[in-house]
Specification:
Structural class: alpha+beta
Radius of gyration: 13 Å
Strand content: 15-25%
Largest sheet: 2 strands, parallel
Number of helices: 1
Shape: elongated
Order of helices and strands: EEEHE
Number of strands: 4
Helix content: 10-25%
Strand order of the largest sheet: 1-4
Number of domains: 1
Length: about 70
């Protein structure tokens, strides 16, 4: 890490459902993970795990973050 990114956090907003899609957008497949999982893992790998996530209306039990 360096002085420019040591105090930087990612904020991943994952709230609400999608009425037109019929399922939460966060659970859409992106590669072999959900879009939400990929977002959190990618941001965490860049920022050494400093990720703040806000969830609403989403079943967190399907996440595979580790």
């Amino acid at each position: 890490m360096n002085a420019y990114t040591d105090n930087v956090y990612a904020i991943v907003l994952a709230a609400d459902a999608s009425s037109r899609m019929g399922s939460p957008k966060q659970s859409l497949a992106w590669g072999n993970r959900s879009l939400l999982e990929s977002s959190i893992l990618n941001a965490g790998s860049i920022l050494n795990g400093r990720v703040i996530s806000v969830f609403q209306g989403f079943d967190l039990s399907i996440l595979r973050l580790f």
